[in-house]
Amino acid sequence: MSTIKIFEGREGHIQQKGDDCLPISCNNDSLAGVVSQRACVYSGARVVLNPLTDALHLVHGPIGCAAYTWDIRGAASSGSDLYRNSFSTDMKELDVVFGGERKLAAALRELADRFHPQAIFVYSTCIVGIIGDDIETICKRAAMELGIPVVPVKSEGFRGNKNEGYKAACNSLLGLIGTCDYTPKSRYSVNLLGEYNVAGDVWHVMPLLEEMGIDVVATLTGDARVADIQRAHTAKLNLVQCSGSMTYLAKKMEERYGIPYRRISFFGLREMASALRTTADFFESRQLKEKAEQIILRETARVMPQIECHRSRVSGKKAAIYMGGAAKAISLVRAFQELGMDVVIIGTQTGDRDDYQRIGYIVKDGTLIIDDANPLELKELLLKQSADLLVAGVKERFLAYKLGIAFCDFNHDRTINFEGFQGMANFAREIDITINSPVWRLSVKRQSPINSRSDLTVDMGVGDAIKETCQG
Amino acid sequence: MPSKRLARVNPCSMCMPMGCVLVFRGVESCMTLFHGSQGCSTYMRLYLAHHFREPVDIASSALSEKGAVYGGAANLKQGLRNVILGYRPKAIGIATTCLAETIGDDVPQIISEFQEEEPLARDVTFIPVSTPSYAASHEVGYRVALKSLVQTMVRKSKPSGRINILVGSIVSPEDVRYLKKLLDCWGFDYILLPDISETFDAPLNEHLPRIPAGGTPLDDIRDLASSKATVTIGGLVQEPGAGYFLEKEFEIPHRPLPLPIGLDLCDRLAASLEELTGDPMPEYYERERGRLLDTMVDAHKVVAEARTAVFGDTEMVLGIARLMTELGMRPQIIATGAINRAFAEAALQMVPSSRIITGADFSEIAEEIMARDIELMVGPFTGRQTARKTKIPLLRVGLPNHDRFGASHQLLLGYEGSMRLVECMANSLIESKERRYA
Q1: Which of A66, A40, A245, A50 is CA-nearest to residue A156?
Q2: Which residues have a Cβ under 8 Å from the Cβ of A208 and sit 6 or more positions away?
Q3: Domain total in chain A
Q4: A417 lies in which domain range?
Q5: How far apart are the CA of B436 and the nearest CA of chain A, in angstroms?
Q6: Most buried in the list B24, B110, B174, B227, measured by CB within 10 Å?
Q7: Where residue A161 sits, what CATH number does that domain have?
Q8: How large is the ipTM?
Q9: Span B204-215, mean pLDDT?
Q10: In order of start, what are the domains of chain B with their CATH numbers?
Q11: Domain boundary at A300, A316, A336, which?
């Protein structure tokens, strides 16, 4: 295979579709020293649980773990903003020497008294795993004393990668689910799993489901309240979007409560339509199916002119995708197909064997597939594949920019809604404005009258950028 | 004065390893590696990328459960090897995290083993620094990294007559550029350390080097012990650091100075440089000083008696509070997330009537702000929630600034930086008055 090689031990993590080779290496520990883009167990747990708006998220550890995760997720709330605060037990040297249990117990009392949360999540960090604080017992006692759920999250940073954190978060959620009763308002009721309401995404999806006559019992965890989670066991169906973080929970809920699940995505026109159809099909209701088709027709007609306009300006361009989880990456491939763009690189931080099989199936021959990438590899691949655009998170943004490559933030701190029908139009515009920005046509090197050997062309203006813009 | 509460709500500080990155990034061809779990480096990369809007590569020894139980030597060595292979650095700063410290890894020992075993290590300088995250804040991390760097690298050689300029606190790339211009214009030989002016604010050009170009040359760092004096800028309330070490070990006179913010503190830097060099401050800067004074006079009524809250890193906060008092403003809250008694004493002396908080968090700062009818907040963007809730304008200065452009280009130091700050504060107050009466 003609690809790049920088680090020994990373060979199996990069493949080109079309090569006849072994399954990609994935879901193992990151190699030391290569600057993996992954974070830790705690980060995985934190991103899954943090959007729960009226819960208090207490990080048991030194200040840094809480400081760097303060309000980092762009998950929007229609109610409480308690989740946008950062709470830490701020462990100091003495706590490490003598144990942090007493401080944690006292901090729980203090915070419950000051903030009156509906529930408290207690995240353990690396240091807690080493000194062995018994968080579970403390949480149990505090829950009895305070009269609210106090849920331990076993998220010691070093105990694996983000996937372990997702699992820890799901286990914590399982501790809450089924603790309150509820009768759904409709015969057709669902939970949305792995939907985090980044930039208010869910508010562009929920009204459509409601219009079909579906009761969304709980969203896990975007814009969710503790009470929603507690009654999530009463829904008839789980719709799983971010499969990496929530498939585990969906399976557990199926085991425990007999709730089946379906994988869906609300991103991209076809995916969005298929999500509505999957839901209607599940309930085997003619009325739901008809309603779904009506909505799909109406909404597609509404956003299509705008998307078509952007499509005409971006089709044929080459996109690179580097995502945390595989579900988003796969949805992105489909969305780029809708825009007429080619995906030339696709990678994830935490995809597993199944994920990469699905990815391998949907991408074209020649596409590079990469697991747990690092900046040096990303740089080489972007140049080798002549990508016009990278879709990733903030850490990768400035790498793309420095290479003169357009960029779209598809991570948790984006501020533009991408889900639902309108979301796809927003996405199309976002891709258009970055790929077609005149900044990429400005010459990096100034042509100097003194140094006439310069063979760079003079770019006097922004010429072809002065096209009509698409109406939003 | 530190808070009596147990839990921190909305921190006003970061952890020790963060400070190290700001030092190591200011060294020529130097990479940072955190000995700990993968998350630490990823979080700090994210945090700094947001602030500087630059790619930030920080390696990790990626300790897993096995490493935590049996020790992290194997991971650390593999990490160092990969950093050398991937990045070809001339130096690697190795900062510990709470995990590595608590499992008790002897990093200097592991490094010397690595140097013996690994031919690749021959031309690389290794700088170990102990930064258990629970021990202190990012500011202390910055200073111990600076001290370790100097301790590890200096060697005595014949006197050079140069002056060491240590940047003792976290400042912006623009600040460092300003200092270098000032010193160049003054016309004496100096070594400035650390120099993040290019490395955290690189121009866009055709080639993206694996390690950003710039930083203090390694040979200069080795030569620090040959200089005739050391000035630590932003070293007023700090515990003994690199400057003291050079004084104690090599008898190089050391002057710890505050950050030059405000007329008086800028004059103090100027006076020190005049004494050390025997040359007067260049005329250009005399005129700049005059312009600052002119601006302060122009603005004095707009800002008069304005009730302000200043928070953030110690030295920066003290400098800004000082400028405010020079203008007739009334700093009501002077707060830092660090626990630092000298800071509290200096602040108290400057503004006896203000509420001084060390070890502050934003829940505490917010309570004080609401109790004191504050008109202007000055500090990092982490004050934004408080600002939004109280509808008080927040002038963003210092690290971190994730939600506005310009963090790398913000000049706070010198007569010029002070002048810009006066103008920004005055404009902020005018705008909020206009909004109120609109």
Answers
A1: A40
A2: A276, A295, A299, A420
A3: 3
A4: 1-34+304-472
A5: 26
A6: B24
A7: 3.40.50.1980
A8: 0.94
A9: 93
A10: 16-143 (3.40.50.1980), 163-279 (3.40.50.1980), 284-437 (3.40.50.1980)
A11: A300
